[in-house]
Amino acid sequence: MSRQVHFNFGKKLSRRTVLRGTAGVGIAVPWLSAMQKAFAGPEEQKTPRRFVAMTLGLGLHAENLNPEKAGRDYKPSPYLEKLQDIREKFTVISGSSHPHVSGGHRAEASLLSATPMGSGAQSRTTISVDQLLAKHMGHHTRFPSLVLSSAGNASPSYTENGSMIPAESSPARLFMQLFVNDSPADQAKQLHRARQGKSIMDLVAEDAKSLSRELGAGDRDRLAAYFNSVRELEKRMAEAEQWAHLPKPKVDSKKPIDISNPNDFIGRQRLMNDMIRLALSTDSTRFVSYHLGGSGGVVPIEGVEEGYHSLSHHGRDEEKLGQLALIETSIVHAWGDFLRGLDGIQEDGGSLLDHTSVLLTSNLGNASSHDNRNMPVLFAGGGFRHGQHLAFDQKKNYPLPNLYLSMLQKSGLEIDQFATSTGTMTGLEAS
Amino acid sequence: MISTRYASICAHLAVWASVVGVGSFLSAAYAAVPEGNQVRTFLENNCYDCHQGKDADGSLDLEALSFDLGKANNLQRWVRIYDRVRDGEMPPADYGELEAKDKSQFLAATHQGLSDFQHNIHTKYGRVRGRRLTRKQIENSLHDLLAIDIPLTHILPDENKTDGFTTVADGQGMSHFQLAAHLDAVDVALDEALRRALSPEDDYARDFDAKGVARTNPKRRCREPEMREGKAVIWSSGLIYYGRLPATTAKQDGWYEFEVTVSGLKLPKTGGVWSTVRSGPCVSNAPLLASVTTFEATEKPKVVKFTTWLPKGHMLEIRPGDGALKRGRFAGGQVGVGEGEPQDLAGIAFDRVTMKQVHLKGNDDQVREFLFGNLKVEPVKDKRQPWQVTSKNPKADAERLVTRFATRAFRRPVTSDEIEPYLAEVYAALDAKESFVDALRLGYRALLCSPRFMYFAEEPGKLDDYEVATRLSYFLTGSTPDDQLMQLASAGKMREPEVLKQQTRRLLDGKQGEQFVNDFAAEWLDLDQIDFTQPDSKLYRQFDPIVESGMLSETQQYLQTMLAENLHVSNLIDSDFTYLNSRLARYYQIDGVEGDALQKVTLKPETHRGGVLTQGAILKVTANGSNTSPVIRGVWVSERLLGVEIPPPPTNVPAVEPDIRGAKTIREQLAKHRSQGECASCHVKIDPAGFALENFDPAGQWRDNYIKMEGRSVKKGPKIDASYDLPSGMHFKDIDGFQKIVTSHPHRLAANMAKHLLTYGTGATVEFVDRAQIDQIARKSAEDGYGFRSIIEQVVVSDLFLSK
Fold first, then answer.
1. What pLDDT is stored for residue A30 in this prediction?
2. 3-state SS class at A13
3. CB–CB of A114/A359 below 8 Å?
């Protein structure tokens, strides 16, 4: 078995090839063989572009994250010291945020959609950047997108009508969905049910229309959300029917064991990162959001004695900042290892990381005061020229939606605006 | 942009496809303006000095603040202005007195403007718009519709809480993910119902003596019980899965009723041997265990009874679990026979374990009746289809059964127009030569995915009888209305106050009342978060899962008593009794309680306990496991128990970052924080309740001092000061004083209770215009001594409850 596999996108792959990621997990990759014939048009012969958004519920302490100096020869900040071997793979962005987004923790809902919102009860968000990609390009893979979290179902991924997409928090369940085939009898039953499901969806969609007329304008929004969900599910069922005929990719690694301690933030982060890498490298999906919400309890790291959430409200207390730094350093290191993992997988035209934009950010620029400005932003891979610190104005923030627009355009979406973007991101160029 | 979209509200398909904001139609329909001039003059005279222009205090530029209540968060801002002026917080004291007449005119005009605006919207569209069943309600409904008992909530996504409750329509999401999960849950439910209907009754019963649950090979070191003097024994130890009983492994998913005859060995001084029962695969690659129950093993053998869900392949683990017990050491993670004996450990000894599969919601005949009515269902000699449903006239039978099922699923009689498309689908399946059962299954499956099942179909205005029956049933039982409610609805009696009260009493009687209290308190008091954090075991050594489960039972039992005996609402804050078992009593340092059953205990003043407020469960869910924060507890207690509304932190102002370096205790830190201008106005409301609880640590035990860490050892820290000077001039020294002040305002406590019940029961947040009715509910309940059940009854007969 070779350590790395180069995909040749000129030909169809007809055999399963095994590759090993840097973390020692072997993966069999059937990914183009059948898929390409099944769905891809000629434009799909290009290497796919992926996007992974990792979002933190409790921010990253700016003074430990952002280097003092801007530009390419910045001196690493404390959090980035151990990431210098992959320095050329990522960019640090400071002084940017989503315009007109406030509300502290609640701004999580706008983290990936950049929809302006205050703290009024009637604020609504709309489609998040990962879901926009999935909507236009998700049909090429078995899973149009993956929405994941470390705990609970909260996610920053939203549909167009502003419904949060519930996150999967169990790496073990995710593994089953990605890689474990159902028995032929189960498959046949599921196919039958999927076909039946489509006609049921037709039926209930009509019923929703007449019910909406009975209940009047007040309920129309919500029934519209139901109606759209029905139509969307119908479409997914049709796609799923095609996928059901095809075997899931095989991987060497075993089904993981979920970490039961809700406070083992880093352990859960690393395990889920492994699953994301498996999902990307087998082309099970191309768009992932992974929410790392803050747990209330004590993160099991030597030297950490207070709950994570309460540490984030450090009030500049040295002791608390010290403990918080221990946690956040581990988070950034785990993120670095994820990049290294992707970078160790070669495909046509570069590494998996070269074709995957990886974002680490948070709605909280300052968790201690619940400030939504000056968001922490690390951005890696995806075919951009990295290795720099883009320092914007701390007082008058640069619009972060511009980064999303750059990424979307690079991914092949022909749009010229996302949310409140004013253009593509200044200083971020294609490599 | 948003409001223009709504200009085309009557066009249907275009609207379906477009993205529409919730509040959008409000602004287009009603740009209500409070009495413009009067209000404007008042603001000019009394407020503009500080609140005008770009640099206005608190970024509140009153000159620029529009009266268009449908836009942005103008409504909330006006409500806040109203409240602050009414409460005398604004203009601030040092600004000078307001003319009483000016103030009352301003308040009246603003009140009317705000009320009219909301009233118009509620009349036209209803308070509650597009509410759907929660996942718990879906599970309960499917159970009751099909007489099945298989767990379903884990298939459906977690629900968001809005204003504390998952039932609130505003926060309920809908997406194709949600719908796909719903379809899965429906399929699992129908598969289970058909399995039950078309197979012999589940029949699995076992009776093990001590040898039957002990290890099979006494020479092997393992984690199963060892035989000692004719009993199967497990010693106290920290070893995981030690105490597993492979004999109890479930052969198929199901509910199992257990009776375990067990006694304690080498009892500790504290009494019996407190033990845990948990379930799981009990192997290392599936480490999660579910808690089943706890009990105290006594010298004399006793029978412990419990019923639990076991997925196929899961078994019980029963072991001593009291954190205070000495734990045995066993080499290599296994226990050999006789290795525990010399270590002087407490243990438990099994005489007998029986298990029997049971069904909780009706037997198989009931399942058959719900699915197939009076059609003959019987076993036949056909290997491919061993059970057969006989239908002489499949289409007529299908029409009858599908219509009946629709009536139950939609919670009202269905019209032929409504049912026709569903029937057409079933007929098509029959025409395509699908079996009668498959065709019927298709019909049921479609009905259960219909919005008429998933949503509360409530028309604007007064609710009709069926809508009332449905709302009442989901409020009190979390499930679909039963036969009696449906009959009353069909007789047109569901809106009669006496009928409503009588049905409320019926649905809150006995076990059902317990279920209501548990479901409601799970969200209202965050009891569903009880195991969200584990108190740091280095700091809070006496806490263990048995204590936690005792705390939860204490609060549930206490609230059940408040309901059953219709006790005064102030019992939430203070009382001279609670419910304890021996373990929790020891934890609270209260003497004289024996046994594992909860019992009513009279509390002496020196315990500082009394009321839900001081119960361990509440103290635990309001802390993070390692320390307490008067702010977090203060906000929680204010909102959940006291009915003091805490506004969200200011929006347009970046929060002032508290610079609290050098400050030491939480009190000093907060004092510093409060001194920073804008923080103070809210913290005077938040902090009192938080400080009053400072004498209770994060694990719910009383403390006189904070702890401080010196290296690895825990030392006594600064003394706790739980006192507070209230803005009203009143002062309290500690929790006892705080309780006295709070319980002297029962009306406010009752109104708060009513507000939470209404939010939970109707699915909409209580708003400005609803305040008067909330007040009225509290006043009426005063006639019954502010009893918990009386408040519920007044809620149920209120206009708010009986209108959309």
1. 32
2. coil
3. no
What is the rounded CA–CA span in Å between residue B696 and residue B587? 13
Q: Does the beta-carbon distance from B176 to A232 stay under 8 Å?
A: yes
Verify whether the Cβ–Cβ distance A226 to B179 is below 8 Å: yes
pLDDT exceeds cutoff 80 at A367: no
Assess whether pLDDT exceeds 90 at residue B38: no
**CB-based contact A357:A380 (threshold 8 Å):** yes
Peptide bond into A67 cis (omega under 30): no
> Residue A55, SS3?
strand
B52 contact partners, CB below 8 Å, separation of at least 6: B61, B62, B63
Closest CA to A127 of A413, A427, A423: A413
The answer to whether residues A236 and B184 touch, using CB atoms and an 8 Å cutoff, is no
> How does DSSP assign B691-733, residue by residue?
HHTTTB-TTS-B-SEEEEEETTEEEEEEEP---EE-TTS-EES
Inter-residue contact B403 to B414 (CB < 8 Å): yes
Name the 3-class secondary structure at B349. Answer: strand
- Digit-coded pLDDT (tens) for A142-155: 999 999 999 887 88
Q: Which H or E run includes A131?
A: helix A129-137
> What pLDDT is stored for residue B675 in this prediction?
67
Q: Is B288 exposed, middle or buried (0-12, 13-18, 19+ CB in 10 A)?
A: exposed
Q: Look at B9 and A208 and tell me if their CB atoms are within 8 Å.
A: no
Query: What local confidence, expressed as pLDDT, does residue B562 receive?
Result: 98
Instruction: Give the pLDDT confidence score for residue B649 in this predicted structure.
Output: 60
- Residue B713 pairs with which residues in a beta bridge? B710
Averaged pLDDT, A108-134: 80
Distance CA A338, CA A342 (A): 6
Q: Cβ(B716)–Cβ(B708) under 8 Å? A: yes
Number of A to B CB contacts under 8 A, please give it: 239
Do the beta carbons of residue A133 and residue A234 sit within 8 Å? Answer: no
pTM of the model: 0.83
Choose, out of B65, B162, B174, the residue to mutate when testing the contact with A (most A CBs < 10 Å).
Answer: B174
Are A200 and B446 in contact (CB < 8 Å)? Answer: yes
Burial B333-369 (b: 16+ CB within 10 A, else e): eebbbebbbeeebbbbbbbbbbbbbebeebebebbbe
| Chain A, nearest residue to B658 by Cα | A315
Residue in A157, A175, A201, A203 to test binding to B, most B beta-carbons within 10 Å: A203
Q: Which whole-number Å values give the CA distances from B679 to A101, A368, B657, B666, B684, in the listed order?
A: 21, 14, 10, 16, 9
Distance between CA B59 and CA B75 in Å, rounded? 16
Q: What does the pLDDT look like over A243-269, one tens digit per residue?
A: 878 889 999 889 999 988 888 999 999
Distance in Å from the first CA to the final CA of chain B: 29
**A362 token code pair:** 């948070």
When computed from its CA atoms, the radius of gyration of chain B, rounded to whole angstroms, is: 30
